[in-house]
Every structure is written in C-alpha cells, then in structure tokens.
Specification:
The structure holds two protein chains of two kinds. By secondary structure, chain A is mainly α. Helices cover about 65% and strands about 0% of the residues of chain A. Chain A is built from nine helices and two strands. The longest helix of chain A is centred in the middle third of the chain and has 19 residues. Chain B is built from eight helices and eight strands; from the N terminus they run E-H-E-H-E-H-E-H-H-E-H-E-E-H-E-H. Chain B is α/β, with parallel strands linked by helices. In chain B, the strands form two sheets. A four-stranded parallel beta sheet of chain B has the order 2-1-3-4, with helices on both faces. The longest helix of chain B has 13 residues. Classes of the chains: A mainly alpha, B alpha/beta. The interface between A and B is medium-sized, with 17 and 15 residues. Bound molecules: adenosine-5'-triphosphate and magnesium ion (MG). The site of magnesium ion (MG) has 7 residues of chain A, from loops. Adenosine-5'-triphosphate (ATP) sits at the interface of chains A and B.
Chain lengths: ~220, ~220
Amino acid sequence: MSCATEDVVAVVRAAAVTVREHRDELVELDRRIGDGDHGENLMRGFTAVTSKLDSHVPDTPGAVLKLVATTLISTVGGASGPLFGTAFLRAGTAVGGLYRLDGAAVAAALEAASAGVIARGRADVGDKTMVDALAPAVEAARAAVGGSVAEVLAAAAEAAERGASSTVPLVARKGRASYLGERSAGHLDPGARSTALLLRCFAGSGRFADSADRG
Amino acid sequence: MTIGLVIVSHSARLAEGVAELAAQMAPDVSVLPAGGTADGTLGTDYVRVRTALARAGDGGVVLLYDLGSARMVAELAVEDHEGSSDCRLVDAPLVEGSVAAAVAAQGGAGLDEVAMAARSASGGPAVGTDPPAESVDLLLHNEIGLHARPAALVARALAGLDAEVTVGLGGRRADARSVFALMGLGARDGDTVRVGATGPDAGEALRRIAELVERGFPE
Ligand SMILES: Nc1ncnc2c1ncn2[C@@H]1O[C@H](COP(=O)(O)OP(=O)(O)OP(=O)(O)O)[C@@H](O)[C@H]1O
Ligand SMILES: [Mg+2]
C-alpha cells in the first residue's frame, strides 16, 4: 500500500493527538531553555489543523500538506509556526499533484521540508534546533528509498530521535535558547524533540503497516 | 506617496509603543503596529502582519521586527503579500530604526533610503575621541541641512570605503555612517561642520562628502 490522501489526513490527525499528549513535556523542555510555550504553540496549531480538516478535506496529499502549512503559519505564534509551516509547505510542493505517495516521494518531501526549515531559520546542524533532528532524518530516509513508505518513515523517525538526543550537550546558537549561551547545554531542544515525536507518529500510525510497494 | 512602516513584535504593547514614538516625529507617515497574538498572548501573528501590510499603503513598506520568529513571520507575510517587491524587511534596532525610518519617510525619502535610514540607525560603538587623521570644515548651504535625505546620502557615499568618518558640530561628533546620529546633530543651512576621517580611504571619504556638500546634496 502506498499512501493516499486519506492516509495523510489520518497521520495528521494522529499528529494532533501526539502533540496533545506531549504538550506538558514540550512546555517543560521549552521552559528550561526558552519561553515555555512550545507545547502550547503546537497544540494551538494542530487543534486548528484538525478543525480545518473536519470541515474540508482537500483531494490530494500535497493539498493536505499545504493546508497544514498555512494553518500552522497563521496560528502557532512562535518560531515553530513559520518553521514547521515552511516544512509542510515545501513538502506539499515537492509531492505536487500526486494522488498516491510511495517511499521515494515521502523521502523527497522530507528533504524539501528540511531544506525549507534551514532556509527559513538559517540554522546549521549543531546549532541545537529542530534541524538537528530533521537533517539526519532526511539522510536516513534517502538511504531507505527503495523501501515502502513505512520503511522510509521508520528510518527517518529513528534518525530523528538520535538527532534530538544529540542536542542535549550542545550550546544553542539559534533561537531563544541562544540567549542563554553556555547555560543552554545539558538540555534537550524542544523543537528537536517535537520533530522526532511527529516523525515517530507518522511512522507508527499503523496506516502504512502493511505497505508492500517498493520504490 | 509616502512609505509606510510595519512594526512586528511579540508584544502588542511594545509594537504600539514603538509606533507611537515613531509617529510623533513623522505625523504623516503610517506606522502600523503588528504585535502579539490574536488571543492576547506574547507571540508573533502572521495574520496581523498581513493585515498591517495591506493597510500600509501602496507607496512601499519597510518592516522592522524584534526577536526570533518575528523575522520569520514577517518574511513569510512579505512573500505572500501582493506588493512584495515594494517591501523591505530590515534588520535594525527596533526603536532607533523605527524612528529613523519614520523621519526619513516623513522627509520624502524613497523606499531604499528609508530602509537604509533604519539599518544605519544603530547607536553603534561610541565614536572615538582620538582626533581624526585628516579633517575638513564644510559650510552647509542646502535648505534642510543634514536632515534625513542628505544624511542618507552622506552614509551611502561612504559605502565600501575603509575609513572611520565622523561629522562634528558644536563639540559633538557623530558617526557619518549612521543616518540617525547625523540627524541628531541638527546641522542646518549656514552651519559649518567638521568632517574627520581616519584609515586608508580617509582622503577619498573627505573628498566625497565635500563634493556632496558643495553641490547641495543633489538627487
Ligand atoms: N532559527 C531557527 N532555526 C531552526 N529552528 C529554530 C530556530 N529558532 C527556533 N527554532 C526551533 O524552535 C523551537 C522553539 O519553538 P517555539 O514554538 O517555542 O518558538 P519560540 O522560540 O518560543 O518562538 P519565538 O521566536 O517567537 O520566541 C526551538 O526549540 C528550536 O528547535
Ligand atoms: Mg518557545
């Protein structure tokens, strides 16, 4: 099974649930090295996405991704809004008008998303941001092309989790945490954590569990 | 058609305060605050920035921002705005930059000049007290003196030159690259200013400024 519009809608709804379940954790992480609103910001954004999808479901995966993007951009209120918004926007553009996504299309979408975040936020790997989760996820997804959607996403999620953990010892060079300088070391970056959570949710939602398509 | 300003901030009150301060010196310029989120919390709001851009008039808009997401949200709003080619997003100190930009717009400066007035508004490092290596005294004979447009022309003339340049009047000295500081001298028609320069291009810097003054700051 490749991935059709209703699957993308289902994983986006699952993402909203994940964000709700991890709201407090993300708030706490952001309280340590930021302004303590990351969980709240994402909750606001994904709640708005869910209610948009309740009233209207676009007819291609790409259009769903773009709807997520514009909703996050106009509701989130913190850096993760324009950043995740740009990520979903570029992912939507990358998959174009396709009705079904295979593993390669998903990997290409992730790659475009990561490039968008880097262009918007101007962070490099090692700056202690979501880029530290996203960039290795792209590498892993690319290496898994040839596999199913489920395999590509599983590889990306695992790499993102490792990437998020790698932010703990880092000193932040971008975002609010950078104002803390050395004191930002020793803490997990909230945006890297939420990025890994979202990818794990996409991979583990069960929608693609029996995906058999190759390439 | 004057240039409008949009102030993008995490705080509604901060954006309003900056707009108030800037408008005081530029009564005819529209300075629009876009601060805080719709539900009254701290944060940046894309929709508010879009609304402000749409209201800012069609003569061009200069946007200034405070921290982090404010730049990214402003950038997205500009990209999605119909007149995006007439928008300039400026990295400048929010308060000084907004005031400098408003004053420049009030004086009839063009879009890029207003943007430059904001950009060069940084208080910057204190101007040194060492006497400059070379200096000249210049008599101003243009109607408005070293006001916004002439000050912007002085700063622009120095682009690319390796020299520290100051303009002095009545015991005060200003960094010649800072439009804001130059305007702060209040030099008028009939005043004599002392222009000092230090560095490899000091001579060229003095020559360029002298020429501007002599020609009465032509367009
Ligand atoms: N320039 C950037 N590039 C990439 N990621 C960034 C950048 N700035 C912040 N982030 C990510 O965003 C996360 C914080 O998101 P959050 O929603 O809390 O926004 P915020 O930092 O509070 O926003 P604001 O800039 O409005 O203060 C950080 O943990 C980091 O991963
Ligand atoms: Mg935050």
